[in-house]
Every structure is written in structure tokens, then in C-alpha cells.
Specification:
There is one protein chain. By secondary structure, the chain is an alpha+beta fold. The chain folds into 2 domains: about 60 residues, Orthogonal Bundle (Arc Repressor Mutant, subunit A), CATH 1.10.10; about 180 residues, Beta-Lactamase. About 45% of the residues lie in helices and about 20% in strands. The chain is built from 10 helices and 8 strands. A hairpin with a 2-residue loop joins β3 and β4. α1 crosses α3 and α5 packs antiparallel against α9. The N and C termini lie far apart (about 50 Å).
């Protein structure tokens, strides 16, 4: 007896659509997806809408589609950075367009923040950080935005025993840093006022997965000569909003067995999951 009768043809077509997004590797329009897969535009549209809903595809600015975080999660931990960058791309582009300033995405790695994506405006006075670079937690808005919401033992792991000074504004004592982190928790965002680099002010907010500790942070960096009172008020709130949006999208990721177990454990002990 032929096995073909057990094949779910719509599922096969949907997988063709996902494979097209994976293999091309750049944002594609509905027409491009339809042309590559041979699936009609109407059917491709329905598949794409479903994949977006489930987190397996992302609708980017310009009505273009990319593979989503849930699809990357199927590949294991090695794809976490790719998944995060992919799902954050739309928010990062929106911030660059809105403010015309550099937008950074960073994740914790040991004693440093690693920049996994940086989008720059097309104008002069750009800042020196590049994707793949690393900075300290205590001197950056990205770092403070994350450790402010981490338990003490996790903070101790990420911080160096001595907090090095990079500028005259760098916080070099734990007392100073703890006071700053209290303000981060109060307002939901962190500010680096030339603490890491002279001539640069940075605003950052934490990004969460399913757990209570941040997994990343997003920031906007502004050269001091371009900063004004209006930006000083508007930028941090928009960064916080973007971080919340990215968190919401990331929580569409299918949880691993360990994540599910940890979540149930916290709920059983009365701990609330951060939203």
C-alpha cells in the first residue's frame, strides 16, 4: 500500500514556505515566496500568516517575511543569537528611522556584554562599537539594564571583582552601581551618560524570555552634541516599549523541557513570571 495517502499536502506546502525563508536568508515579499515555492499567492499568504502567529515567521517592515524565532529554536541553543537578532530587527529598524541614531542589541556572555547586532544611521558622528565587540556590564546602559533585574548571584557572576574606570563618569564602586540599578528597576530602563565612552549617551531596556531574568537588552546610542531635552525624555520610553515588544515576540518560542520545568517550579513556589 502506498504511503502517499498519509501525507498531509498542505503541511508539505507550508514546510516549503519555511524552507524558502531559511534558504534565501533575506526578507522576502509574498510574491517572492510564491514564486520560489510554486505555491499560489493566496495560499502562501495564509501559510505565512499562520507561521507568523506561531512564531515560525516574522513580518518585517515593508511587508517582507523572514524565518521566525520558533523556527530557529528547533536548532538548539546555538541559534539563540540568530533568533534574537531576527525577531528584534523590525524594532531596531523602527528606532533607527524614528531617531536617526545607532541602535544596539546585546547579550550577556560571562563578564561582558556582546553586541550581536548594531544598526547605524546614514549620517556623520557614528559611534565606535561594532557587532561582535564586547563591553563591561557596569559601564554600559545595556549591561545595567540586564543586571538590574537579575538575582544577586547572577549579578556577581557577570561583574568583575574590580569595576574598571573608562571615563571620569564610570561607576567604580558597588555602592554607586547598586544605587543606579535601583533607579533602573524603578523606571524600567538604564542610562549611560558617558560612562563607557566620552561623547556618547546610551539608553537601554531589558529583553526577557520566559524566565524572570533578562536574556538581552536593546539600546539607542546618541552622540552628546546631538542630545537635547526632548530626546532625553522620549528615547528611553521608546526603547522600553521596543524591548517589551521583542519580549512578547520571543515568548512565542516553544519552551524546552527545562524551561517548562523551571516555569512550573516558580509558579508552584508562588513566584510571578515577569511580564
Amino acid at each position: 500500500m502506498s504511503e502517499d495517502k498519509y501525507i498531509v499536502k498542505p503541511l508539505v506546502s507550508a514546510i516549503y514556505v519555511m524552507e524558502a525563508l531559511r534558504s534565501v536568508g533575506v526578507p522576502m515579499t509574498l510574491s517572492q515566496v510564491s514564486e520560489i515555492t510554486g505555491v499560489s499567492k493566496t495560499t502562501s499568504f495564509r501559510y505565512l500568516k499562520t507561521l507568523v502567529l506561531m512564531g515560525y515567521a516574522v513580518l518585517q517592515p515593508g511587508n517582507k517575511y523572514t524565518l521566525g524565532p520558533a523556527a530557529f529554536a528547533l536548532g538548539g541553543d546555538d541559534n539563540k543569537e540568530t533568533a534574537l537578532e531576527n525577531v528584534a530587527k523590525g524594532e531596531m529598524e523602527t528606532l533607527v528611522h524614528e531617531f536617526g541614531e545607532t541602535v544596539n542589541l546585546g547579550m550577556p556572555k560571562g563578564k561582558h556584554i556582546h553586541y550581536i547586532a548594531i544598526l547605524e544611521p546614514k549620517r556623520a558622528l557614528r559611534l565606535k562599537a561594532e557587532s561582535g565587540d564586547a563591553d563591561c556590564f557596569h559601564s554600559t546602559a545595556l549591561g545595567k539594564a540586564m543586571i538590574a533585574f537579575m538575582p544577586k548571584e547572577q549579578v556577581d557572576f557577570h561583574l568583575k571583582s574590580r569595576l574598571p574606570r573608562f571615563t571620569d563618569h564610570t561607576l567604580t564602586s558597588r555602592r554607586q552601581l547598586d544605587q543606579a540599578l535601583t533607579m533602573v528597576r524603578r523606571y524600567g530602563y538604564a542610562i549611560d551618560r558617558e560612562e563607557n565612552e566620552i561623547g556618547c549617551v546610551c539608553y537601554a531596556a531589558p529583553i526577557f524570555g520566559w524566565g524572570e531574568s533578562p536574556i538581552a537588552a536593546i539600546s539607542v546610542s546618541i552622540p552628546s552634541p546631538r542630545l537635547n531635552d526632548d530626546l532625553d525624555l522620549r528615547v528611553p520610553e521608546r526603547v522600553k516599549s521596543s524591548a517589551s515588544s521583542i519580549t512578547e515576540k520571543l515568548r512565542r518560542l516553544p519552551m524546552s523541557t527545562d524551561q517548562m520545568s523551571n516555569l512550573k517550579s516558580r509558579r508552584g513556589s508562588g513566584s510571578a513570571v515577569r511580564t
